[in-house]
Amino acid sequence: MRNPVVCTPLRAERIAVGRRPGAAQVVRTGFGPRRSRAAAHRIAAGGARPVLVAGVAGALDARLRPGDLVVADEVRGDGVEPVMVPSAVPLAAALRRVGLRVHVGPVFSSPSVVDGDRRSELARTGALAVDMESAWLADAAAGGPFAVVRAVVDTPDAPLYRPSTLVHGLRALRSLRRAAPALDDWLAATAPRTVELAEPRSFCAGVERAIDVVDRALDRYGAPVYVRRQIVHNAHVVRGLERRGAVFVQEVEEIPRGAVAVLAAHGVAPAVRAQARGRDLSVIDATCPLVAKVHSEVRRYSERGDTVFLIGHADHEEVEGTVGEAPQQVVVVEDVAAARSVQPRDAQHVAYAMQTTLAADEAEEIALVLRDRFPELAGPRRDDICYATTNRQRAVRAVAQKADLVLVVGSPNSSNSLRLVEVAGREGTPAHLVDDVGELDLRWLAGVRRVGVTAGASAPDHLVDEVVSCLSGLGPVTVTTATTGTEDVSFTLPKEVS
């Protein structure tokens, strides 16, 4: 792939963007479609290259103000095929980091100045801004990475032919000047890459079951269906269920008496179930069966008088629910240091259990310390770490050993997703958690040629597809899959929705 080019139609735009460091060339391409076509033909000669169009535009959406930036996720135009821009969202995020007000959406290219009824007509199509070059400059990339950043001059409330246009134009050019570091981030991130997908990744059987419980409850009982806490730790899943009519609350007391209530996959303490009965709720339990198994272990140990060491994170919902089975007998052990100092009531009557979403190697290290200190320590016949957690950690480890960078798709409150980042990091590979493609930092990609991608057990796989699509918008991508195992586990649904 050849060296990148920044296309600026007007001289003032070229001055605002300035000379870019590195190999990027800034070219004044000229005003309007005819000059843009000619410039695109010249730039494209010799093959694909990254092309970024930077300039001013008119706003179509009344919410935009002079000086705002529009990053095109699609470029449309009269008589040309639409061009999708997969890298728009992280480019917009880079621009916001330098303090600019940024919008992402379609940009329309017109062969003439747009105003009046035509402006309103284009606004109804969903386009955010209009210019006179971008659609014709897209050919300059010759199939390589392409992006468009336009600074707003005129708006529906302040059309182009007004005395204020000069002030608004200066404001737009200042925004372009401030945008320069983010444009450099995009240019530096463009390159051919190999993307290796970890397999298994994304939803596990327990997460699929929990989401299915809420979906079926909505189908059977109608909205609203109340859910205590997030059904699984993923913001996208929660928002999707909210659109269907699920109402997420923190505590049972927030649920109207007699309503349908779902208990989330992470499990709850017996006291929560008692509160639900006290409010005459129709309860559907979506607790993951593997979490329910840990609850059962803790009850069994505590009933025989053991002090139960629960290896896990004290502030995690799963641990809070498990501790609630026997609050006076369960001691949370968060790390090796705690394992070395914890003191039970009776060293002859001790047992341990684990949070299901821990990093398997760290959890085993803590358990080993406890076993060494307490020879009578009882434990589960099989470790409590969830099969899906173990499988995903093994897969990300294999990917991290070959990658320059690992991206883990998952929400920041997802324990198993955070553990994937840690596991990859322990292989010596930089690793980052992203809730979605909007959190992909272009600076991470500079100089990176091999990217490993995985997703936590609560993250939808379509978010992984969006990350891969975005990377393909930054250069040619070869996608491979590293498979370290397969999963065929399924769990039955609660009788209330089966």
Automatic annotation (TrEMBL):
Q: Where does [4Fe-4S] cluster bind?
A: C204, C288, C386
Stated family:
Belongs to the IspH family.
Name the catalytic site residues. Answer: E318
Q: Does the keyword Transcription regulation apply?
A: no
The pathway entry for this protein reads as: Isoprenoid biosynthesis; isopentenyl diphosphate biosynthesis via DXP pathway; isopentenyl diphosphate from 1-deoxy-D-xylulose 5-phosphate: step 6/6; Isoprenoid biosynthesis; dimethylallyl diphosphate biosynthesis; dimethylallyl diphosphate from (2E)-4-hydroxy-3-methylbutenyl diphosphate: step 1/1
Q: Which SUPFAM superfamilies match?
A: Purine and uridine phosphorylases
A Pfam match: LYTB
Q: Where is the Nucleoside phosphorylase domain?
A: 26-157
Q: How is the cofactor bound?
A: Binds 1 [4Fe-4S] cluster per subunit.
- Which source organism does the UniProt entry give? Pseudonocardia yunnanensis
* Cofactor(s) named in the record: [4Fe-4S] cluster
List positions binding dimethylallyl diphosphate: H233, H266, H316, S414, S415, N416, S458
Q: Where does isopentenyl diphosphate bind?
A: H233, H266, H316, S414, S415, N416, S458
Enumerate the residues binding (2E)-4-hydroxy-3-methylbut-2-enyl diphosphate: H233, H266, H316, T356, S414, S415, N416, S458
Q: What is the protein's known function? A: Catalyzes the conversion of 1-hydroxy-2-methyl-2-(E)-butenyl 4-diphosphate (HMBPP) into a mixture of isopentenyl diphosphate (IPP) and dimethylallyl diphosphate (DMAPP). Acts in the terminal step of the DOXP/MEP pathway for isoprenoid precursor biosynthesis.
List the protein's name. 4-hydroxy-3-methylbut-2-enyl diphosphate reductase
Q: Which reaction does it catalyse?
A: dimethylallyl diphosphate + 2 oxidized [2Fe-2S]-[ferredoxin] + H2O = (2E)-4-hydroxy-3-methylbut-2-enyl diphosphate + 2 reduced [2Fe-2S]-[ferredoxin] + 2 H(+); isopentenyl diphosphate + 2 oxidized [2Fe-2S]-[ferredoxin] + H2O = (2E)-4-hydroxy-3-methylbut-2-enyl diphosphate + 2 reduced [2Fe-2S]-[ferredoxin] + 2 H(+)
Can you tell which superkingdom this protein's organism belongs to? Answer: Bacteria
- InterPro entries listed in its UniProt record: LytB/IspH, Nucleoside_phosphorylase_d, Nucleoside_phosphorylase_sf
Residues passing through the membrane, by range: none
Quote one Gene Ontology molecular function term: 4-hydroxy-3-methylbut-2-enyl diphosphate reductase activity
User: What EC number(s) does its UniProt record assign?
Assistant: 1.17.7.4
Could you say which enzyme class this protein belongs to? oxidoreductase
What's in the keyword line of the UniProt record? 4Fe-4S, Iron, Iron-sulfur, Isoprene biosynthesis, Metal-binding, Oxidoreductase
